[in-house]
Design brief:
Shape: globular
Strand content: 25-35%
Order of helices and strands: EEEHEEEEEHHH
Number of helices: 4
Largest sheet: 6 strands, mixed
Distance between the termini: 36 Å
Structural class: alpha+beta
Helix content: 10-25%
Radius of gyration: 16 Å
Length: 169
């Protein structure tokens, strides 16, 4: 069976339209990757675990803050290139990205040195327009953005304002 993850796609509405919160994976393998490397805050869950509860747990672990209160909008699931299935819920809310504090993991780095180093699971988070997010997020998660745009009646295609805003990230 394919691995499964669950996550929460936080969104907010600004004068420029809908923005979504994405996270960048920490660690040396992702340090120089940007486009196509970002993700919704998510993580794996076991077969006996409620996916929605796992999504909330992973949000807390990756951002170091509780999930904002509000109604979760089911976005369904999407399959990533690795075969992993990502189940997601959208939630309207706002967080200050400069206040995130991710959990950490240990790994041998540099390879074959026997030296263990600690890295954050998420090294940064940022708000993106839907158009900007569709360029930054892992390709397999783009359908989740499209589903959110459809449910909100928003446009995922860039407008002049969204293009200018997306270039800030």
């Amino acid at each position: 069976m394919s691995k499964q993850s669950a996550g929460i796609l936080l969104y907010r509405t600004t004068g420029h339209g809908v923005e979504v919160l994405l996270v960048h994976p920490g660690g040396p393998f992702w340090a120089k990757k940007d486009a196509g490397a970002w993700s919704i805050p998510k993580g794996e869950f076991s077969e006996d675990e409620d996916p929605s509860a796992a999504a909330a747990r992973e949000f807390h672990e990756e951002l170091g803050m509780a999930v904002p209160e509000g109604e979760r909008i089911p976005l369904g699931s999407a399959k990533q290139a690795s075969g992993k299935i990502v189940h997601a819920w959208a939630l309207c809310g706002d967080v200050a990205v400069e206040q995130i504090k991710s959990n950490t993991f240990h790994m041998q780095w540099p390879p074959k040195t026997g030296k263990e180093q600690e890295f954050p699971e998420v090294d940064r988070a940022a708000w993106f327009s839907l158009a900007g997010a569709s360029k930054k997020v892992v390709k397999g998660q783009v359908p989740l953005l499209e589903t959110l745009a459809k449910k909100l009646g928003a446009n995922i295609e860039p407008t002049t304002e969204q293009s200018a805003q997306a270039s800030l990230f």
